[in-house]
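Page 47, continued from p. 46.
Same chain as before, 164 aa.
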Amino acid sequence: MTYSHILPHRFERLQEKKLIGMKMSMSFAENKTVQLWKSFMPRRGEIQNAIGTDLYSVQIYPPSFFHPFHPETVFEKWGAIEVPDVDLIPPGMESLIIPPGLYAVFLYKGDARDAGSFFQNIFYEWLPLSGYVLDTRPHFEILGEKYKRDDPGSEEEVWIPVTP
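Result:
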């Protein structure tokens, strides 16, 4: 699938978001996303004060992660749920606060395993032409009711932190 450099998107000014979940260190070369979600999903019901049912897949990249990009560079990935406060954290889970700021929001449709060209288009075509640069806040995807694991009909929102 090819994406035009003019990807449909919107800008959102995110308010601080509080999440509870589980995290793992990984790289794109040694991707442990499946293991992360296999550990988190059976336990997500332990989060007593969840806001809604959306799941958050969060990536925290080191500041120089994309320049130059190396698939072996390690980053932190989270599987999490939004909460109003982080007072009740189940054992073996942690809290994450996503600070407020501007995000470019894209809709990805398709199997997550095929998303490589979509993300390449965002970072190497859309971003350089957008008038924005990446910010160092967390990147995340919201896996809502239209998200279906390993399904070509799946949909998720992709939130990329940007600054003018």
